Amino acid sequence: MRSLRVNLAQFCILAITGVLIAAFGVQFGAGELPCPLCMLQRMGMILAAFGPAWLLMRAMRGPIDARDYAQCYGISVLAAIVGGAVSVRQTLLHIAPGDPGFGEPVMGLHLYTWGIVIFASVCIVSGIQLLMLPKNSERLHIGIRAKCVLFLFAAVITVNTVAVFALEGFHWVIPDDPTSYRLFGDAP
Amino acid sequence: MDTIIFILLCSCFLAMWHGKRKAAGLLLVLTFVAVILLFNHHATDALEISL
């Protein structure tokens, strides 16, 4: 059961990191710059992955109990609610018949619609983890694989920070439909 | 604002990594508040455009 909890936590982080890397693929590969609501959904996904990430980091320092699990997965659920609200908002903006939507669809759905699926999945997985709370405090074995997952997640957050700074420049917010990286000069 | 939120996220991750629970908790709360405020800003903006 202990290894299942650790594996599930790693899976959550890895799945969200994978989605964020795919978003980089769309941004840098296909050249589609993210809109402000897309960026808010990325923030929601990172916050959702903070729950299991913090659980692994706490487990590296010593035994963890039910309170630690509840706090960490509580963060994920709250982040999923905030991120899900943003995804729903963006989906509703493009729900009218004939609206082509923002950006190109991936596997039939736009990225913000996938966002709803991802945030709902975060809620489901967090609920499953909370059903398996341990009765007593326990010491989890955090191996090299978990540390690699955390480093990959940290790298994705760092690259996102640099990318958003390039996109936003020294302005307060990202424009509604960005066409260039404002740090390297505003579009005419 | 987006850059500031991502810097908050980085700081929060570092605080978690170094085992600073109170600092990480405070940064998490700040990040959540900032994300909700930014969402409110953009949602109101889009509402004005649609009206």
Description of the structure:
The complex is a heterodimer of chains A (188) and B (51). Chain A is mostly helical. Chain A has one domain (1-95, 102-184). Chain A has helices spanning 2-29, 36-61, 66-93, 111-131, 144-168. In chain A, helix 1 (2-29) runs antiparallel to helix 4 (111-131) and helix 2 packs parallel to helix 4. Chain A is globular and about 55 Å long. The relative contact order of chain A is 0.18. The mean pLDDT of chain A is 88. With 51 residues, chain B is an all-alpha fold. Chain B has helices at residues 2-17, 21-50. The model of chain B has no long low-confidence stretch (mean pLDDT 87). The chains are: A mainly alpha (188), B mainly alpha (51). At the A-B interface, helix 2, helix 3 and helix 5 of A face helix 1 and helix 2 of B.
Layout of helices and strands, plus pairs?
The complex is a heterodimer of chains A (188) and B (51).
Chain A: H1 2-29, H2 36-61, H3 66-93, H4 111-131, H5 144-168
Chain B: H1 2-17, H2 21-50
Number of helices of chain A: 5
**Major sheet description of chain A:** none
Percentage of residues in DSSP E strands of chain B: under 5%
Strand percentage of chain A, roughly?
Answer: under 5%
Mean pLDDT of chain A: 88
Mean pLDDT over the full residue set of chain B = 87
Instruction: Give me the strand/helix succession of chain A.
Output: HHHHH
Q: Segments of chain B where pLDDT lies below 50 for 5+ residues?
A: none
Index terms:
heterodimer, A: mainly alpha, 5 helices, B: 51 residues, mainly alpha, 2 helices, 90% helix
What's this model, at a glance?
With 188 residues, chain A is mostly helical. Chain A has one domain (1-95, 102-184).
